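Handout, section B. The chain below has 229 residues.
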Amino acid sequence: MRRRDWFFVLMLGTLAGCGSGPAAQVKGDPPLNKAPALAKDEDDIKLASAEGAGGNYRVKFETTAGNFVVEVHPDWAPIGAERFRELVEAGFYDNCKFFRVVQKPEPFMVQFGINGDPAVMDKWREEKIQDDPVRRPNKKGYVTFATSGPNSRTTQVFVNYKNNSFLDNKGFAPFGEVIEGMDVVESLYSTYGEAPSAQQGRIQKEGNKFLEATYPNLDSIKTATIVKK
């Protein structure tokens, strides 16, 4: 699959999450997020740091494939970092499936963030947040919110499996990085590829019941908790 195709599917990845219906039913390219170009100036980075809500924090993910730790940097993307903390503290990511794991024809990313309980997902589907400027590149191991266009981030995030710098000028702003257990992230079950992601409408309506019946080998998050450094 070409990079443009990957990006197209990635952009569609949250359309179902925002209540727009199954991604497979959407036609045409969605609007691109025209966020500022990647900030390279040191003053910009200092400004972002000043805007950050508090210092860095770490989130431990216990999964069916093993554990990994994400360090979140509010100075990279303060709005995204705050939303991620809110979701973790609410237990939102507990029991979420890694429903999109793209390793072939070459490594790309793993995506998660549709709650297994449709009732919980209903409460978050339209809880959109404003964009952050893109101040760090989408490097391997960096964690970023998925988006369907400007100011559309909700709950879905992805971890880059390689350097995906072509996403930087599309408005995808990394807010954290995997600092432990990247081997676990890369070992997540990937045979289904994009197939579950194309069923996001059903995933949101039926939750893990649908995924476990249709894609039984998907790995999942047992718990996601904020931990001390």
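Note. Residues 1-37, 40-53 have pLDDT under 50 and may be disordered. Compare this with the example in section A.
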